[in-house]
Amino acid sequence: MRVTVAGAARSGVAAAELLASRGAIVTLSDTRADVEGAAALQRHGITLELGGHVAATFADADLVVLSPGVPPDLDVVQSARARGVPVIGEIELAFRWLRGRVIAITGTKGKSTTTALTGRMLEAAGFKVTVGGNIGAPLSAQVLSSTPDTLHVVEASSFQLEQIETFHPWIAVMLNFSADHLDRHRSVEAYGAAKARIFENQSPSDWAVINADDPGVLELARRGRAARRLFARTTPIAEGTVVEDRWIVDKRAGVASRLVPLDAISLLGPHLVGDVMAAATVGVIAQATPEAMTEAVRAFRGLEHAMELVGTIDGVRFVNDSKATNVESALRSIESFDQGVVAIIGGRFKGGDLRRLRDALQTRATAVVSIGEARPIVGEALEGAIAVHPAASMADAVAKAFALAKPNGVVLLAPACASFDMFRDYAERGRVFKEEVARLS
Length: 441
Fold this sequence. Notes:
The protein is α/β, with parallel strands linked by helices. Helix content is 33%, strand content 23%.
């Protein structure tokens, strides 16, 4: 088959290499003039089309595969569809060749943490596990190692899920839901519809793990056919995963079985307890032992750029939550502290209501430092609630926040925005933040 892969980032490259290894005639198309590893790709027999997408390359293909970062409404993609060319996403392509079962995890916040921790719990329990998708190795890079007894723990974003056809998780997890990615999706409803596709192909023999604390999740999961397993940190539920007497427990038929003690959790932020509960719920379904789950949780120190404690200077703590790229995530970050917060907020605004941060900032923060393209939006949204100090760069932001947080405050990078105005991605933004903190020390 002649296959055009759109987008030469991690997922697109993995898809192109997988297709070439299976005998396809592959063209990898990207708007950038240069991509990393171009020579190696060409050695695999992959044709590179750089500097812009060519309509004929898409329209004359037998199949088009989209990397998650490529919008499906591009003219070249729409024209290919109009000519009857099938268009799928990278995880759909990979799924068709997987031999193992899939545990897919989605949500507006906490996907990466939950995915990584779920993988570690299952590994500790003795399962053969791969972890990736939207983090780590793309699903296409896991096909060669897939066996019938492999459990593929996959972080699935809305960008990936909106282009599936047969993608079918054995266990589908939805952590939470709030407005995000409105620069890509037409509306909150469209974003929710993309997320809800995680349940679309499940059967009654599959499992849907659902956050009962979140009404939006309950609504999106309502039409799914899989067996439901609830978890709830604050909402009373008769059966499911709950917290009792400082333990995460599995509550069924009136009996509560202890899974993980809360004192085993070393993650910053009470909202991250919910991520541990979701991972433990998957563990119960997969029949991991409580001992294995607890062992994994005790050893887990969180992920880089997700409520990451960077260090303390002159009594001021620095916390990197660069992955807080939407309003809901930033709100949870701010709510993790009682007082003394100086929040660094801004970047490329992608929708949502920044005014939702006002109450939390008024009660917990002393100031906000705004960065990036969204500086005027941040200032307008928070006007009258808290002092907002614009900064021209991350170095300027860290220096101003440090001065404002003395003597015993917290400098919190919780941008509530994408990073692409100033950085390649959220990871580069987080690394630069940490570099500036290191310079201060």
